[in-house]
Amino acid sequence: MKPAIAVVDIHRTFKVHTEFYANPSARKTIILINGSLATTAAFAQTIKYLQPQFNVVLYDQPYAGQSKPHNSHTRPISKEDEASILLELIEQFQADYLMSFSWGGVAAMLALAQRPARIEKAVITSFSPLLNEPMLDYLEKGMVCLQATDGEQVGQLVNSTIGKYLPSLFKRYNQRHISRLDRHEYLQMYAHINQVVHMDNHCQMECLAAIDIPLLFINGEHDEYTAAQDVRVFAEYLSDCQFVTINNAGHFLDMEHKGAWLQSQTALLKFLQAPARSSSSFRAAPNPQHAIAV
């Protein structure tokens, strides 16, 4: 089924391309938040197991994909801007759930900290509150390529690090997509990464403690950049969170192979369709060096 396309005006500041996949029998709507340098196309595999159960909303950030022609790109937008856009789209589409991937977890968590009344549960995938050594190395190399707007090098970096477990076909798509981005998109991600690396970590985690709905964190077993063990530090700050590790998967989870797709489907649907509960599945010792990771 083809989606209904609309360009939504956000506070007379941004115009956002949206895709609404309607399910006439669905009672709930879920909104999906992209990772860095990605567009709605990145959720092609995820849509396959969500749309039979829910209405699904996808969107491109103002600087990316099909939103680009509708916006000026005179300055990078902040993570707070992205959270504000998400909150407005939640109201526009009356979303009940949200799901984020990778960098999209930043906007998702900041939006959830404002306690949007409509959202009942959220799923945060391939995301970590820690900047570990592999992630810091990736970010430092990425900032050099992004500042130079060297799209070929950015694509090769992504495919050799967080994308190293992707099938060869997806790697070729990644390289083609990333190497052909507009200059403002590389500078946008440079600004985001620079902001992440220098943010006030402890204040950020305390802010996220305001989230009061059930959250599910999904990470890949072999993802060294947003590692499954690192994300469990959230249990110290969130009142109701669960954790799932996808076996034999890296950062891109359901895009990597059929087994990871099936595990992701099972974990997500089980969580969203179950009655809410109020116990955390893990308690971890606090770490003094927290940061929201791309």
UniProtKB/TrEMBL annotation:
Positions of the AB hydrolase-1 domain: 29-257
One of the Pfam families matching this protein, by short name: Abhydrolase_1
The name this protein goes by in its record: Pimeloyl-ACP methyl ester carboxylesterase
Organism: Pseudomonas guineae
